[in-house]
Structures are given as C-alpha cells and as structure tokens.
Amino acid sequence: MHAQGNSMSSNAMSRRHGAGAHVEFDFDEAHRVRVGMVCFLCSEVAFFGTLIVAYLTYLGQDTTGPTPAEVLSRPLVVAGTAALLASSLTAHLAVSALAKGAMARFRACLAATISLGVLFLAGTAVEWQGLIRDKGLLISTNLFGTTYYTLVGFHALHVTVGVLLLSLMLVLSQAGVVSREHREGFEVVSWYWHFVDGVWVVVFTVVYVIGF
Q1: 20 to 30 Å CA-CA from 28: which of 124, 134, 148, 174?
Q2: Nearest to 87 by CA among 59, 63, 118
Q3: Is-contact 114 170, C-beta < 8 A?
Q4: 8-state DSSP, 100
Q5: How many CB atoms are located within 10 Å of the residue 48 CB?
C-alpha cells in the first residue's frame, strides 16, 4: 500500500509538472514571437534610418533638376497619409474586437485596414505615374530621383507586405481558422502595421516637409 501510495503521488506530481511545463512552453512560445518581432522591427529601424540619412545627405547636392519642390505633390500625399494613419486606428479596433471574440466586427475593421492600405498604395502609384510620365523623374535622373524612389519605394514595399499579411488573416478568419485564441498572434502582426505607419510619418516629414 505504501509503495502504491508513493506511485500515485509520483504520478500526480508528474501530471502537475507536465501541466506546468506545458504552460511554461506556451508562455515561452508567445514570448519568443514577441521578442522576434521586436528584434525584426529594430533591424527595420536601422534599415530605414540608413535610407533617410542617405536622402538627407544628398538632398540639394544635384547639379541638374528636377528638384523636390518642382515635381512633388503635397495634396495627393497628404490624402494618402491620412488614409494610412486612419488604418492604424482600424487595426487597433480589430485587435480589440478579436480579444472580445467579436468576429464580425474584427473582420469589418480588418477589411477597413486593408482598404485604407490599398488606398495609400494607389495614391503612391498615381504619384509615381505623374513623376515618371509627366515630370520625367526616373531613379537614374539625379541623386534626388535615386534616393527618393529608394526610400519611398521600400516603404511602399513594406506596406504591400502588410496588406498581404492582413488579407491572409482576413481569409483565414472567414474560413473559421482565426479565432479569439489567436489574439496574441494577430496583435504581433498589428505591430508591424503600426511600425510601417510610424515610419511613413518620418518619411513624409523628411521628404515632403524638410526637403520640400
């Protein structure tokens, strides 16, 4: 009986230890994902910081035109900026809705975020079409063209990646794959979107305010 009691006690401790290990694994997994995203975003800060420094370094160094003031259009970019900033709000509302299990509201906010992101990209495409076709500004035209298209182009690429990620989340949600249990994962994805929006505020200030 004593041996049996020890065996039962040992099994109970094993189960408790197993359950505790499982909880610890879940915490570690979520922690790793968050730390991984933070590290990735830090590397992105360094990347965009390099592009911004390069833009400011060569600003005004051209011996031939056109200059930023001659070709850039603020009204179109301001509209796109407003759309992108609004998408940060809808992304935050989507996270809140998912945390509460309000899936219909989550999908609506997510769709609005995607739409605003696409609207921003459409505005960038229209601006670039005018710059290339009407103003003759190519990436090889001068230093301004090179640094401008590189900086704004890489940001647009990041927005495109964000739109694709959010679209995938929307499709999975409609298929019933994404639920309230995935709130932390989606929140980490939303960090990327907020980061892209924040970077654009800096890019807009540098290109369309300081360098205009």
Answers
A1: 174
A2: 118
A3: yes
A4: T
A5: 21
Between CA 141 and CA 113 the distance in angstroms is 35
What are the residue ranges of helices labelled H in 130-181?
Answer: 143-174
Q: Say if CB 108 and CB 86 are below 8 A apart.
A: no
Contact 58, 147 (CB under 8 A): yes
Task: For residues 132-159, give the mean pLDDT.
Answer: 96
Rounded to whole angstroms, how far apart are CA atoms 87 and 48? 21
| CATH 1.20.120.80 applies to domain 47-210 | yes
Torsion angle in degrees (nearest 10) through CA of 161, 116, 106, 186: 20
Give residue 28's pLDDT band: very low, low, confident or very high (50, 70, 90). low
Q: What percent of the chain has pLDDT over 70?
A: 86
DSSP secondary structure string for all residues of 52-82: HHHHHHHTT--SSS--HHHH--HHHHHHHHH
Domain boundaries along the sequence of the chain: 47-210
pTM of the model: 0.83
Token duo for residue 77:
């970019």
Place of tokens 């309000």: 102
Query: What span, in angstroms and rounded, lies between the C-alpha atoms of 124 and 189?
Result: 23
